[in-house]
Design goal:
Number of strands: 19
CATH superfamily of the largest domain: Ribonuclease Z/Hydroxyacylglutathione hydrolase-like
Number of helices: 7
CATH class of the largest domain: Alpha Beta
Structural class: alpha/beta
CATH architecture of the largest domain: 4-Layer Sandwich
Bound molecules: zinc ion
Radius of gyration: 23 Å
Number of domains: 3
Mean pLDDT: 80
């Protein structure tokens, strides 16, 4: 897809049974190259129509997933991701009224490249439900705090007290309980994008951040796996487990008619897991669908996994410890870091009472 806003009226399709459950890993990864897969084999079923897709991220980059679906006039947003620093220039132009008439927001999982723009959307006026799994809702406040601290919401106005002589000045965005104590005559204002605060020696007030996070969390509704729930009078949805991080789901959205009969179906993969994590439950497969919207991050026809990679990792750490060397391990904050810590703990335990990683 081209970078930038892209609207696409999906072509007329015919309904077909989509058997994701019968794809092997290699086939599944091969299909991941394509963001939208139209399943169209002739079955004689009625033609599908009325679905419009607009992408506001995750084009030519792995971050910033935000997908707007308009299903016969019912608007939904799938994921609300922020962009990693190096990808910031790839953020497409986003209209101020992106939330207008949006009936629901769905989160596939808690990674910030799928949730980091929630604060921004709520600031822009989104007031509807945010559907996600229970583990995602449990992790979300931590991720939102990061987004609140480091996100770029354009220039905003912050204030602080001129009587603060500490090196780090706390700035407020709202009249939080601490901000209220500052007399008007002592207030100083700055107009700045919040990601520039820290480099200038400012830090955003914890209470103001809590207020922002609460605004989002008040809209969150948790949904169990494999339970169909009504989104609007003409749409229902269901979550299926995918082994990416705790709480990650695929989302199936189905049209329903006046008497509850199912119509066309859109399946959104979120991020697909590799299935090799020792912590996560297996992929749940969906055996029918009309449209598939799927991640392409690791799209390749070669997937190599040797079962003893974790043991080799522990052995390497043990070797470095014995040689008194330092190891720097870059890792994603959520899930990957915890997996690294888990392997270090295993290594220490296997090393006996020495407290060292002997593996
Ligand atoms: Zn992810
Ligand atoms: Zn404050």
């Amino acid at each position: 897809m081209q970078n930038g806003r892209r609207e696409k009226n999906l072509p007329q399709l015919r309904r077909n049974e989509f058997k994701l459950m019968h794809l092997n890993r290699k086939q599944l990864i091969a299909v991941s190259f394509i963001l939208i897969i139209n399943i169209c084999l002739l079955t004689g079923a009625p033609a599908l129509a009325g679905i419009e897709y607009t992408g506001y991220g995750a084009n030519k980059t792995v971050s910033g997933s935000l997908h707007l679906l308009n299903i016969n006039g019912e608007k939904l947003i799938l994921d609300t991701g922020s962009f990693f620093a190096v990808d910031g220039s790839l953020k497409p132009e986003q209209p101020d009224d992106i939330c207008k008439d949006v009936m629901a927001v769905f989160l596939s999982h808690a990674h910030s490249d799928h949730t980091g723009r929630l604060l921004e959307l709520v600031k822009m006026g989104y007031d509807g439900p945010i559907y996600c799994s229970e583990p995602t809702a449990a992790i979300l406040p931590v991720m939102l705090e990061m987004a609140a601290r480091y996100g770029d919401f354009g220039r905003e106005t912050f204030y602080y007290t001129r009587r603060n002589y500490n090196y780090e000045k706390v700035v407020h965005r709202y009249d939080c309980k601490w901000g209220k104590r500052i007399k008007d005559s002592n207030k100083r204002f700055i107009h700045i994008s919040r990601d520039k605060l820290e480099p200038m020696g400012f830090s955003l007030c914890e209470k103001c951040m809590e207020l922002e996070v609460k605004q989002v969390m008040d809209k969150v509704k948790t949904i169990p796996l494999n339970q169909k729930f009504k989104v609007t009078s003409s749409l229902k949805a269901e979550f299926f487990n995918t082994p990416h991080i705790p709480g990650s789901v695929c989302i199936k959205i189905t049209e329903i008619d006046d008497v509850g009969n199912a119509g066309q179906t859109v399946i959104y993969s979120g991020d697909l897991g590799s299935g090799v994590s020792p912590f996560l439950k297996d992929q749940q497969y969906i055996n029918k669908g009309d449209y598939l919207l799927v991640e392409g991050t690791y799209g390749t026809d070669v997937f190599v996994h040797q079962g003893d990679e974790r043991r080799k990792f522990r052995q390497f750490l043990g070797l470095m410890v014995r040689e008194d060397k330092r190891v720097i391990i870059p890792a994603f904050v959520l899930d990957r870091t915890q997996q690294v810590l888990y392997e270090i703990k295993r290594g220490i335990e296997d090393g006996g009472n020495t407290g060292r990683c002997h593996c």
